[in-house]
Backbone:
């Protein structure tokens, strides 16, 4: 039941690799639309980059730590790094096969990705023109002799290592009485993605769409880049590297939190390289020059790959007007109960309302903010922001409210990984508009997704979401939002903001589960109640949908419940550290992992409670970071109709045999038994969208 029993607990990072492999497997399915397969390849690649920047960076730090008291942790970290590298090597081979297969499928659909040596005269002319007009100003070669280390370079880019020389003809060698050509020179070119696109559309022809990697555009144009240098033979090989992105925050107490984070973001540029992927065909002399400037050690990952890297760019592959090769468009549903011109604030006061994005339009939340910004009944708006869209309508509505004289408070989390710079920029714009900006808590990330709207009379309103108030992710992440005027819940939301602004105030919450206060203990009690009810012969079951389950105490309690025969059905998208099917330990636990067109992100918790079912939603996963080190909010659901809808969401997800796979701790990601039997598979996201379309007509 603990770390000393490895069969009962899968290390978080291993379970993450298993999860990312499910994304790769989705890219390999022939029944997934071809351009969507490209997108999954891009997601897999991007996820892996972030994993190395953050998780592997942390493990490397532990493995290299010389502190004598951490000997056991150091050895565990080194063993885990070894296992992760083995899995990464195995999956990378599958990835290269998947890339080749998808490229072949594109060719069969008359979408051709050409190499530079496959261009015809017309295409060559187009590439030269493209280089002169759009690309040349962004190309800045560096001689390897001038580059001491690559730690100052960004690891978000792809690089070409270039070898060039002047190859003399036999006649020239004879005339000059030399046996060999000139010595080779070596240069480094960073691919400018962005501002340029990774894939360049060439003129269509003969019923085909032609494209070329930007890498190959640069390869073709090397004689133009190095014109006048006297070289006539060029070779260019791609490589990429990943750096430690764990920010070293300045602990100088004289610096404010904003300044610390700003410094931390800048420090990423100086992180040590810990992974390198290079073209396996790169000649040894060129490879040695690359490796020498990355200062690697024996724990770092060095991997030979194919000709092209940074396949995260596949997520923006041109569709070539081939919508038949993508998922059919699902237009966000406008809920009939909220369509009228009646005030949304008044409708929420009538009874609890919900939206489930992307099935429902996120615009309803924007409308709530916009109405609050101009309503004479509203006196204040307070909200938490974790990640923000590039052109955030949420922030624009809040700024409008502040300019209209409302008291607006925004708690913005500066430590939202990889969005810190964006959040800092937005916070300054909000401050300039008169918004009171609170930069979270020292030592605690504010990850809760809550909004409080203070009214002059008639009762306040609150919105509690499972995901970010972000119109961009609301189009691709499944998230559930409660909009309520229930006094006890709204008062608790108000108290959460008081806790954030005055973290040492003694605050008790009547309805909400709030971490790091008592959320974890409350969940353990809820599981414990199911054990008691099972023993007493009362209805007992647990149904949960989360992103991750890795908390030891929660897993131990689930094992206790399973050992007593409590049915436990889980929908877990990502990390899952528990193991199913252990006799006497986890026989009754079933875990389904769904990978589909939308990223499953909502968190839903259902407990039988002896027949008086308790249902909760909120921002927290069952991970130590969510339960112990973040400000998270989980709310109970009281409205019968919303309870019914949440159960439909869980029912459909647990029945998903089309996009779901068995998550049992082995990492096999097998389809559910019976999938080969020929019956009609069930796809939860598709069925749920149809369900909402049908119920919206009623």
Residues:
């Amino acid at each position: 039941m603990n770390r000393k029993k490895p069969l009962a607990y899968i290390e978080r990072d291993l379970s993450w690799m298993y999860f990312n492999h499910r994304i790769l497997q989705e890219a390999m399915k022939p029944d997934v639309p071809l351009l969507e397969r490209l997108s999954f390849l891009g997601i897999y690649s991007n996820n892996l980059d972030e994993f190395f920047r953050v998780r592997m960076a942390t493990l490397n730090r532990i493995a290299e730590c010389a502190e004598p008291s951490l000997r056991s942790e150091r050895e565990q970290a080194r063993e885990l790094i070894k296992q992760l590298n083995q899995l990464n090597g195995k999956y990378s081979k599958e990835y290269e096969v998947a890339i080749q297969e998808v490229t072949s499928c594109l060719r069969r659909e008359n979408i051709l990705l050409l190499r530079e040596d496959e261009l015809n005269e017309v295409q060559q002319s187009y590439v030269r023109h493209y280089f002169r007009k759009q690309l040349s100003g962004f190309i800045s070669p560096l001689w390897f002799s001038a580059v001491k280390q690559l730690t100052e370079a960004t690891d978000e880019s792809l690089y070409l290592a270039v070898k060039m020389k002047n190859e003399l003809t036999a006649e020239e060698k004879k005339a000059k009485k030399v046996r060999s050509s000139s010595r080779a020179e070596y240069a480094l070119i960073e691919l400018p993605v962005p501002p340029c696109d990774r894939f360049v559309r060439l003129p269509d022809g003969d019923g085909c769409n032609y494209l070329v990697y930007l890498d190959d555009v640069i390869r073709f144009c090397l004689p133009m880049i190095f014109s006048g240098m006297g070289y006539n033979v060029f070779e260019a090989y791609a490589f990429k590297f990943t750096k430690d992105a764990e920010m070293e925050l300045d602990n100088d107490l004289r610096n404010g939190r904003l300044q610390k984070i700003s410094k931390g973001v800048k420090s990423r540029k100086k992180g040590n390289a810990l992974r390198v992927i290079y073209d396996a065909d790169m000649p040894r002399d060129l490879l040695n020059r690359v490796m020498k400037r990355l200062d690697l050690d024996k724990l770092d990952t060095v991997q030979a790959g194919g000709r092209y890297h940074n396949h995260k760019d596949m997520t923006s592959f041109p569709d070539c007007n081939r919508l038949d090769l993508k998922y059919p468009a699902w237009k966000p549903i406008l809920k009939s109960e909220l369509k009228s011109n009646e005030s949304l604030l008044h409708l929420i006061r009538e009874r609890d309302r919900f939206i489930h994005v992307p099935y429902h339009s996120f615009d309803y939340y924007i409308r709530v903010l916009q109405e609050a910004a101009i309503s004479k009944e509203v006196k204040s708006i307070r909200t938490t922001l974790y990640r923000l869209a590039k052109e955030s309508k949420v922030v624009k509505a809040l700024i409008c409210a502040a300019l209209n004289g409302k008291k607006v408070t925004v708690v913005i989390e500066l430590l939202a990984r990889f969005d810190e710079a964006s959040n800092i920029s937005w916070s300054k714009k909000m401050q300039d508009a008169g918004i009171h900006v609170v930069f979270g808590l020292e030592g605690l990330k504010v990850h809760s997704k809550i909004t409080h709207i203070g009214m002059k009379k008639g009762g306040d309103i609150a919105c509690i979401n499972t995901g970010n108030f972000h119109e961009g992710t609301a189009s691709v992440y499944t998230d559930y939002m409660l909009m309520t005027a229930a006094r006890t819940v709204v008062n608790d939301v108000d108290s959460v903001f008081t806790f954030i602004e005055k973290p040492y105030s003694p605050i008790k919450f009547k309805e909400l589960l709030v971490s790091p206060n008592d959320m974890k203990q409350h969940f353990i009690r809820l599981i414990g109640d199911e054990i008691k009810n099972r023993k007493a012969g009362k209805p007992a079951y647990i149904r949960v949908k989360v992103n991750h389950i890795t908390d030891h105490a929660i897993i131990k309690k689930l094992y206790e419940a399973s050992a007593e025969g409590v049915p436990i059905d889980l929908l877990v998208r990502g990390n899952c550290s528990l193991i199913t099917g252990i006799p006497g330990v986890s026989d009754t636990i079933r875990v389904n992992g769904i990978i589909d067109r939308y990223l499953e992100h909502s968190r839903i918790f259902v407990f039988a409670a002896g027949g008086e079912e308790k249902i909760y939603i909120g921002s927290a996963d069952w991970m130590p970071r969510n339960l112990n080190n973040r400000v998270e909010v989980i709310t109970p659901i009281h409205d019968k109709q919303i309870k019914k809808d949440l159960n439909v969401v869980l029912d459909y997800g647990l029945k998903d045999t089309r996009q779901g796979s068995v998550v049992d701790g082995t990492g096999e990601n097998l389809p559910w038994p019976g999938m080969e039997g020929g019956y009609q598979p069930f796809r939860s996201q598709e069925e749920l969208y149809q369900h909402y379309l049908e119920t919206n007509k009623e």
Summary: The longest helix spans residues 71-108. The domain at 6-325 is CATH 3.30.1840.10 (polyphosphate kinase like).
